[in-house]
């Protein structure tokens, strides 16, 4: 890894100025329990084929499970799910031990009440400094009309659904 002349605190502050959705990525660990992490580094990548990318820290306890299982679910959190985001952002398995989840037909742990679930298989993986760049091939989408949770300048806030005017 090469050193940079950019101050990490200044870089983090600059990136926090870009609003993003809040996602939780889940997979199963070697014991069949849910493993996951909160990620704001998530994006669509390609329409054909349908690809998304998410960037877990190389130090994430979930990252090795995601790579070995080659299957994961990305949850776009709904408004009001700040506690869920914080549970998956903290270290240790006790953070999520009591959470409700179900197993999808594709074998991924799915969290209830989210705005959207995107189930993926691992398509490619690349190094990205202290994070990995994980590209998922989209296998299934579960979409709702729920308003979403937004991260901006170090805080999470609810983003209301847009009101569409009648034509």
Task: Describe the fold and architecture.
The chain has helices spanning 8-16, 63-69, 82-89, and strands spanning 20-21, 23-28, 34-39, 42-46, 51-54, 71-76, 102-103, 109-110, 116-128, 131-143, 148-152, 155-159. The protein is globular. The chain has a domain at 8-40 and 61-119 and 141-158: Roll (Pnp Oxidase, Chain A), CATH 2.30.110.10. The protein is mainly β and 167 residues long. Strand 7 (102-103) and strand 8 form a beta hairpin. It is built from three helices and twelve strands.
- Rg on CA atoms, Å: 16 Å
Helix and strand sequence: HEEEEEHEHEEEEEE
Shape verdict: globular
- Compute the separation of the termini in Å: 55 Å
- CATH superfamily caption of the domain at 8-40 and 61-119 and 141-158: Electron Transport, Fmn-binding Protein, Chain A
Output the structural class: mainly beta
Query: Could you say what the CATH topology of the domain at 8-40 and 61-119 and 141-158 is called?
Result: Pnp Oxidase, Chain A
Give a short account of the largest sheet.
7 strands, antiparallel
CATH class of the domain at 8-40 and 61-119 and 141-158: Mainly Beta
Low-confidence stretches: none
* Count, helices: 3
Helix content: 10-25%
Say how many strands there are.
12
Whole-number average pLDDT?
89
Strand order of the largest sheet: 3-2-6-9-10-5-4
């Amino acid at each position: 890894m090469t050193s940079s002349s950019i101050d990490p605190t200044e870089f983090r502050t600059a990136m926090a100025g870009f609003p993003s959705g809040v996602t939780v990525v889940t997979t199963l660990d070697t014991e069949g329990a849910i493993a996951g992490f909160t990620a704001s580094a998530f994006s669509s990548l390609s329409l054909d084929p349908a690809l998304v990318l998410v960037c877990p820290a190389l130090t994430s306890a979930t990252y090795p499970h995601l790579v070995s299982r080659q299957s994961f679910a990305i949850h776009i959190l709904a408004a009001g799910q700040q506690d869920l985001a914080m549970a998956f952002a903290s270290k240790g398995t006790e953070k999520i031990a009591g959470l409700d989840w179900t197993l999808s037909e594709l074998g991924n742990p799915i969290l209830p009440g989210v705005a959207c679930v995107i189930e993926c298989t691992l398509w490619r993986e690349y190094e990205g400094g202290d994070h990995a760049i994980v590209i998922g091939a989209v296998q299934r989408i579960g979409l709702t009309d729920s308003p979403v949770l937004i991260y901006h300048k170090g805080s999470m806030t609810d983003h209301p659904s847009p009101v569409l005017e009648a034509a």
